[in-house]
Amino acid sequence: MNQKENALLSLQGLKSYYESRDGSEVAAVDGVDLELYPGEIVGIVGESGCGKSTVVRALMRLLDPSSARIAGGKAVFCGKDLFGLSEREMCGIRGKDISMIFQDPLSALDPVYTIGDQIEEILKAHEHISESEAKEKALELLREVNIPSPELRLNQYPHELSGGMQQRVVIAIALACRPQILIADEPTTALDVTVQAQILELIRELRDKLNIAVILITHNMGVVAAICDRMLVMYGGVVVEEGTCKEIFKAPKHPYTRGLLAAIPSIKEEKEELYTIPGQVDVMKVPVACCRFYKRCALAADICRRSEPELKGEGGHLCRCYMAADGAEGSSGGLGFGKEALHG
């Protein structure tokens, strides 16, 4: 049997466009494929504005229809295309089979309801259990995510908890119905370094215990290295590099990936100044007919301006770059960046 047939989730050619003020459409996500298997953690990494959060919000059908639309693609989960389901059918999957941890836990929690009420609400909606059963299960979930004094926390409000405990509560809510897929959208951004490490370790422990698949959205390459099995590097709405974390960290092919890795502080090297990628992510208006990264890339050639490279490679390590195919991959130097690239 083809491995693809064993995928828990198969995202095929996802396109999600936003409407700009001048009436044109912006390609926030422009043809993303993703295969997700039980028990694995896949990271989607890139700068702000590269489209990584839009991928999962489109998957969950959480985009604002007044300004965004799914312009193409499929999201096949358990034999069903999520984009073809009614809102009622999607509500039966969202929060039960596919759950999401949002970036800011305090914003994700309702300030006027207790922690216990908010966990019990999703249990009663999807499990159809009694009040007493929901309360007991909520207590078990708080213990599972290692919240101290869980009996006390059940009756507290979100503002009474620390940021780390708020995030653990959000994880408990996401895990309440034992989902098959957990989506974590920048789950450690608002937390200090020590708590970040604890949350990441908790996600990994829960993956091992429950065999759930995890999609982790982050801009932090260190987080990806610490927890993920595979990774997708996104830029300008498309995947520019894909492979196992081991492959990509050992031999990054795309100039953008090498730039992200060069920007990571290291205790092994003395640097007066941290490396930064010049410029910023362009607004990609439909249709895009060039390499999305060429304006920031010192390796850009005429072909990069005239057409967009395909995502291709061998052994599962894929790259979307003409220059990588010419031998630029895996080099320690020649990151493909420079101030002159901004004026090309």
Question: How would you describe this protein?
Answer:
The chain starts with 8 loop residues before the first strand and ends in a 16-residue tail after the last helix. The protein has an eight-stranded mixed beta sheet, with helices on both faces. Strands 2-1-4-5 form a four-stranded antiparallel beta sheet. It is of the alpha/beta class and 344 residues long. Helix 4 (115-126) packs across helix 5 (131-144) and helix 7 packs parallel to helix 8 (193-210). It has helices spanning 52-59, 87-93, 105-108, 115-126, 131-144, 150-153, 163-175, 193-210, 221-227, 245-250, 255-262, 302-306, 322-328; strands at 9-19, 25-36, 41-45, 68-77, 80-81, 98-101, 181-185, 213-218, 230-235, 238-244, 312-314, 317-319. It has a domain at 1-86 and 213-344: P-loop containing nucleotide triphosphate hydrolases (Rossmann fold).
Proportion of residues in helical segments: 25-40%
Mean pLDDT across every amino acid position: 89
What's the overall geometry?
globular
Based on CA atoms alone, the radius of gyration comes out at 21 Å
For the record, what CATH class of the domain at 1-86 and 213-344 applies?
Answer: Alpha Beta
CATH superfamily of the domain at 1-86 and 213-344: P-loop containing nucleotide triphosphate hydrolases
CATH fold type of the domain at 1-86 and 213-344? Rossmann fold
Helix tally equals: 13
Please give the number of β-strands.
12
What distance separates the N and C termini?
A: 48 Å
Give the structural class. alpha/beta
* Poorly predicted runs: 325-334, 336-344
Descriptive key words:
globular, 344 residues, four-stranded antiparallel beta sheet, alpha/beta, Rossmann fold
